[in-house]
Amino acid sequence: MKKALGIIILGLLVSSDEVKAAEPFVIHKNANSITFKHTRLGMFTRNKYAARHCAQYTKFAYLFYGAKKDGKVIYHCSAETLFNSPSSGEERLWSNREDKKSEVYKKIERYGTGVTKKPIKKSTIEEFKEICTDLGLTLGTSGYVDCVLKLKSDEEKMIMESQRLESEEKIARGKQDTALDKQELEEEKYNEEQSERKQKKYEKCIEAGTSKAICAIELLSSQEEENQQIIPN
């Protein structure tokens, strides 16, 4: 009976951690942001939760460096492509902006809010001439020549700016992936260390002659105390 009770309590311990990870504590939310109570673990769970929240308003979720403050983590919601925080200017750490399979991406793409950017089609000299003629300028005049050159120059600038923005987006995406990989490895390492520490503590308790049920309860109590220390009131 005691053995069965110990197994049940250990099961509750694991399931309790899973519930906490599945349901992050929300402090505040609206159409433009969602704020969570910070915990040492749970970044990926918060990311998913924030993505679902922002999707209600047909927006992407964004997490920026420096978003954690005073025990809180703030995610921004926006239909635009953001590389920096609109409030602090810090660089982007994570976003579901590139998840093309998500419903919010499909909605924004369908209703044309600028998520899907088509490359600028390079015009021909004849097209520039046609525009200048439609403006009432006479072929061969200095005003006509200036018009054609100006249109050509403006288009080249637009193409260069588009290429620059695309390059910046790729760089930002690379930084985001690197930061997430690092965070994931740190969380995996921490989880392994915590699991090993709990197992050793439980075994040491059993070796001391304490019943498995009591050891499991003590382990659960110590875990609750650690959670209170990690999450500020």
Describe the structure.
The chain has 233 residues and is of the alpha+beta class. It has one domain. It is 59% helix and 12% strand. It contains 6 helices and 6 strands. Strands 1, 2, 3, 4, 5 and 6 form a 6-stranded antiparallel sheet that branches. It is rod-shaped and about 105 Å long. Residues 1-21 have low confidence and may be disordered.
Mean pLDDT: 78
Total beta strands: 6
Give the ordered list of helices and strands: HEEHEEEEHHHH
Unreliable spans: 1-21
Could you estimate the helical fraction of the residues in percent? 55-70%
Apparent shape: rod-shaped
Summarize the structure in short:
This protein is about 60% helix and about 10% strand. The protein is of the alpha+beta class and about 230 residues long.
Give me some keywords for this one.
233 residues; six-stranded antiparallel β-sheet; 6 helices; 6 strands
How is the secondary structure organized here?
Blueprint: H1 2-22, E1 26-29, E2 33-37, H2 43-55, E3 60-64, E4 68-69, E5 72-78, E6 92-95, H3 103-110, H4 125-134, H5 142-207, H6 212-230
Antiparallel strand pairs: 1-2, 2-5, 3-5, 3-6, 4-5
Helix pairs in contact: 1-6, 4-5, 5-6
